[in-house]
Amino acid sequence: MTQTGHSSEDMDSEATRFYRHLKQIWSGKKHSSRPRDKSEKRGGSLPFDAGRDPHSIGSTIGSLSRQLGWVSELAQSQVLIGWSSIAGENMAEHSHPVDLKDGVLVIQCDSTAWATELRLMRSTILQQIALRYPEAKVETIRFLGPDVPSWKHGFRSVPGRGPRDTYG
Predict the structure, then answer these.
(1) Using one digit for the tens of pLDDT, what is the confidence trace for 73-83?
(2) In a domain, 63, yes or no
C-alpha cells in the first residue's frame, strides 16, 4: 500500500491505461487488451540465439515509422523537399511547393506564365511523383500564380473585381 491507500498494482494499471490511451491517440490504432500468448517468440535470451544480432539504424527507423504509421507523412515531406529533382532545376527556380494535403500538392509560381507552363507539365510531374514517392498519395497538383496585394482593406469593402491590372 502507498501513502494514498492504493496498491502498487492499481497505480501500475492506471499508468498502463494512460499509456495505452496516449498510444491510441498518437497512432490512431486501438490497442487490444488481450494478454499476449507466452509461446510467441520475441527473440532468444541466450547470447547467440536467433534474433539477437544488431540491426542497422536504417532498418530500425524504417520499422519504427511503419509501426507508427508515418510512412505516408515521410513520403509527403520527401516530395516537398525533392521538388527541384521532380520538376527540374529550371522549373524549381521559379516555383516552390506550399502545401500537400488530402492528395493535393499546391505549388506557388513566380508568375502566371510559369504556372501555365507547369500546368501543361502536370501529367508528367504526377507520373514522376507516383514513380518516386508512391506512398505520398499525390492525386493532383494545383499551381498558383504569384501572391498579389489585396485591395480589400477593412470590413466595409465593396464587392467587385477590383483594379483591372494583372500581376505576373
Answers:
(1) 888 888 889 89
(2) no
For residue 106, being part of any structural domain is answered with: yes
Q: What is the pLDDT of residues 28-76, one digit of tens each?
A: 666 565 555 554 455 556 677 776 677 788 888 888 778 887 787 888 8
Give the residue numbers spanning the domain of 117.
70-144
CB 126 within 8 A of CB 136: no
pTM higher than 0.85: no
Q: Are strands 95-101 and 140-144 parallel, antiparallel or unpaired?
A: unpaired
Number of domains in the chain: 1
Cβ contacts of residue 142 below 8 Å, gap of 6+? Answer: 104, 105, 106, 107
Cell numbers at 78, concatenated:
520527401
Q: What is the CATH number of the domain that holds 135?
A: 3.30.300.180
